[in-house]
Each structure stands twice: as C-alpha cells, then as structure tokens.
Amino acid sequence: MELQSDAISKLFQKVIEEHEPDVSLVLLGKQAIDSDAGVTGPMLAGRLGWPQATFAANVELNEKDGLLVERETDQGTETIKIPSLPAVVSCDLRLNTPRYATLPNIMKAKKKKVDVFQAEDMGVDLEPKNKVLEVYEPPPRKEGILVENVDELLDKLRNEAAVIP
C-alpha cells in the first residue's frame, strides 16, 4: 500500500504520543522522493500542536534563545527562533555532513534493539487521499519563429497572434 504524507504524519503522531515526554524534538527530511510535497513535517506539527521550522540548514539549541533554525530562502538566509521545545523541524540536505560508519560501529549497530511498529496495529486510516488517475506527456509545442527586429515582432503580435490591438 502506498503511504502518503497524511498517513505518515498520523503514524508519527501515534509513535510520538506513546513516547511522550521523552520526545521533544522531531527531525524529518524536508520532502519525500515519491510526492515531493514537503508536507509531512508541517502536518505532524499541526497534529501535535507543536511549533515548526522547515528547510533547516542549521539548528542550534541554547538555554537563552531556545531553538534557532537557519534556513535558506530565495532572498537569502533567514533565522527562525522557537522559544522552547517541543518542536518539529524539517531538514535541508545542508544540515549535516554525513560521516562514514566504521566497522566497529557497524558491528555495534547490529546489536542495537530496533523498535518495529506495525502500521495496521496503530488505528490510523492509511487509505491514500490522492490517487493518480492518469499520467501523460503534454502535446509537443509548435516550433517558434525568429524575427529580425521589433517592428516585425509587433506586426506578428498584432496581425497573426492578435494579442495586442
């Protein structure tokens, strides 16, 4: 079954509520590769009633200011202040520099207990809300034409395309 952002946020909500107050910060990726929607983090924050920050490129926690989240926008860098935890943060790829696991740490990780939850046992409606009915390519565009000067362009726009009076 395909899980969509709505169902995933409900599942995360159930897990977090089971582990409260141990969970005070939830970090998620900014978007999934399936729908590319970027809405799981905001949906989860809304369901929990927690503040959120999206597209985090840097996260800092300190006693005085709370959680400072730096994010990149089209206008430059923006810093969001979340006064206290709990919070939900969706992370940009620039947040972390991945490190390579060493063989001893890989062996230790194999011995760690991993909690496994069955989605069907959590009482969450997993039915997809959106369904793709059809996928098709758009029709090919007509070939464009080159004009020699502005007067020729204006003539074509007036007489052929009829887009200017």
Q: What is the percentage of strand-forming residues?
A: 15-25%
Instruction: Give Rg in angstroms.
Output: 25 Å
Shape summary? elongated
Quickly name the level 1 CATH class of the domain at 5-97 and 114-122.
Alpha Beta
Order of helices and strands: HEHEEEEHH
According to CATH, what is the topology of the domain at 5-97 and 114-122? Rossmann fold
Query: Would you identify the CATH H-level superfamily of the domain at 5-97 and 114-122?
Result: HUPs
Order of neighbouring strands in the sheet with most strands: 1-5-2-3-4
Mean pLDDT: 89
Strands, total number: 5
Q: Which regions have little confidence, pLDDT < 50, spanning 5+ residues? A: none
SSE class: alpha/beta
Largest sheet: 5 strands, mixed
Instruction: Count every helix, treating DSSP H or I runs of 4 or more residues as helices.
Output: 4
- What gap, in angstroms, lies between the N and C termini? 55 Å
Per CATH, the architecture of the domain at 5-97 and 114-122 is: 3-Layer(aba) Sandwich
- Please give the share of residues in helix: 25-40%
